[in-house]
Design a protein that fits this description.
The structure is a homodimer of 116-residue chains. Chain A is mainly α and 116 residues long. The first copy, chain A, is built from five helices and no strands. The first copy, chain A, binds a DNA duplex (30 and 30 nucleotides) through helix 2.
Chain lengths: 116, 116
DNA sequence: GTTTGACTTCGAGCACGCTCTAAGGGCGAC
DNA sequence: GTCGCCCTTAGAGCGTGCTCGAAGTCAAAC
């Protein structure tokens, strides 16, 4: 599929897709006869995974590291798993922090409701 | 108290405290005889509140807007409350999103555990 | 055959939120 | 008095993650 189609389906812009490829976050996507990028379903799955890592706050640098390990082969599976586990803990901690902040916010809003 | 002490107690750097003052996020802090900033407890409370807004992802621009409203007086209380309520919804949505991402991550980690 | 439009690469530019530097002032310790 | 240190202001610089622009290619539409 074309870069526009991949952009539409991944929710990323075509600019961003090219950028991700440039920095090695996605492998060199197949090119068709014209030299245009030709994405397939597996590319989209990988993009969806990346998007989830991004949305949970993983840095581009760490995602690149993960992508490198993946390309390096099966012997890096354990290190990848450890990366994900460490990241998982960060996400859990972030949720806990936000949950605390949310109740502080609720408290503050309540005082506004009472005084106005 | 000195800027260093305020930095230590707020968890922000002295650079950041000056920056916040410059952009109007905190009012012009009192100066002592030497022209040095002299923070008081209310300044610290305000910084703690700002820090909480920041940590929940409110932009500096929105925090400035809130600070402006606060300085404008009691008649802006309702608008401030509405700002906080809108922000509250964003935070709640973010927690929901992260919670979903967390289980996706857990699922991925589980597949790693099973295949290695 | 030329216009349109989507694609290519590569590098510059931008928004955000700091973070640091330069240049200078003032005070205490020696 | 001079060294050291912390403060001041104003403005430049930086890291991150895009986002955009320039210059050029190619194929289909008219």
């Amino acid at each position: 599929m074309t870069i526009q189609e991949a952009a539409r389906r991944s929710g990323l812009s075509a600019h961003t897709l090219r950028y991700y490829e440039r920095i090695g976050l996605i492998h060199a996507v197949d090119r068709n006869g014209r030299g245009h990028r030709d994405y397939d379903e597996r590319d989209l799955e990988w993009l969806a995974f990346l998007t989830r890592l991004r949305s949970t706050g993983m840095s581009i640098a760490d995602m690149c590291r993960y992508a490198q390990l993946l390309r390096a082969g099966a012997h890096t599976a354990e290190e990848r798993r450890r990366m994900l586990e460490r990241h998982r803990e960060k996400v859990a901690a972030r949720i806990a922090e936000l949950t605390q902040d949310l109740s502080a916010l609720d408290y503050k809003i309540k005082t506004y409701r009472e005084t106005t």
